[in-house]
Amino acid sequence: MATKPSIPKGTRDFSTIETAKRNYIFNTISDVFQLFGFQEIETPAMENLSTLMGKYGEEGDKLLFKILNSGDFAGKVNDELWQGKESNKLASALCEKGLRYDLTVPFARYVVMHQNEITFPFKRCQIQPVWRADRPQKGRYREFYQCDADVVGSNSLLNEVELIQMIDEVFNRLGIRVAIKMNNRKILSGIAEIIGEADKIIDITVAIDKLDKIGLDNVNEELRSKGISEESIEQLRPIILLQGSNNEKLETLRQTLASSEIGLKGIEELQFILNRIEGCELRSELEIDLTLARGLNYYTGAIFEVKALDVQIGSISGGGRYDNLTGVFGLNGVSGVGISFGADRIYDVLNQLELYPEKSLQSTQIMFVNFGEKEEIASLAHVMALRKAGISTEIYPESAKMKKQMGYADAKAIPFVALVGENEIKEGKITLKDMTSGSQELLSIEEVISKLS
Q1: How far apart are CA 345 and CA 59, in angstroms?
Q2: CA quadruple 119, 294, 309, 103: dihedral positive or negative?
Q3: What are phi and psi of 145, to 5 degrees?
Q4: Which of 34, 72, 184, 215 has the most CB atoms around it within 10 Å of its CB?
């Protein structure tokens, strides 16, 4: 007996209905991207490992899917390397390429390669899959789509304000209530500085970014394991647990970080964003959250994360300012800021809350029943007229029993069925059956088009 086929853990097949739901998400996000003046690009699924490695921190590097070199990939590896069993060195020798981990680093590579063709500031959007060798769990997949929007070549914090507005618009259109969390990596650097652990900024941000998932005690334990003193951990606790309104938090931080130049710069940046966003009538909650760290090394300024309020799931969007990402590819002085929408998590949220509009799931509006050769020929003329009018139309491909044809229309949730028999041919009309109510009416093709449009 043949073994039943399967797919890798952390990946999924999508049925026709599920694909329609995903396309609704992609189309909604894409429409908002265009509304804000972003233009779409695409980059390859695989990149050179030299492009990807070292951009996501030590933990991110471990999650890169590496691709074996083609041909005799083991031919150039010496016995000493094989016997040493050092996986990192071995992987470097066997693999020159990897699947992209996100869309931001490939975008930075794209900007550097095409800098002479780009008009700055460059507002780019991109909707493509990414891959991470992560442990699969609810809301976390090894293959998933990201929907990114970035602005490069501008230092203006007005870009951050626009990205917040864009986040708000996307989730308002999708009907998802969200909280937009905001912080600044300069503030986190300032905090590390005043608690005497400036050289441990990466360890601190990686740890406190897990606060929601593992709790304060486990965060403190991780900080201890990284060599951070008890005194510093005690100083850190009240800062990351700071409560109050956004302006109250900033005022407290001004006093706490008074001796940190970089910390005060971060506070100034957040204050600018808050001041500009004040008159924009956001429908979503915007909250400064000092536990938000987004453990990626390339963020240097404002950072964002979006949480759904009515569903227990991880962040469904996030991003931030990166001032030096293109520098690692030889192009210095190009600042950028961007956000990424997690389409697969948004898909799960919309499923749980049943927020898909009925129309977004319909592929066919009307199906013509096939009664035989003569009726088929007459129906095809009507089918063409309906399609020219932009109405999604099918004709059943063979003159099967009526029960089978109607069952097909039911299974596909086609709302209308067209009957063209001998009498309809004589009158040049169509009997239109409403599959929901069961009612029928005799109409001309022009009347059918008017009704379905």
Answers
A1: 22
A2: positive
A3: -95, 145
A4: 184
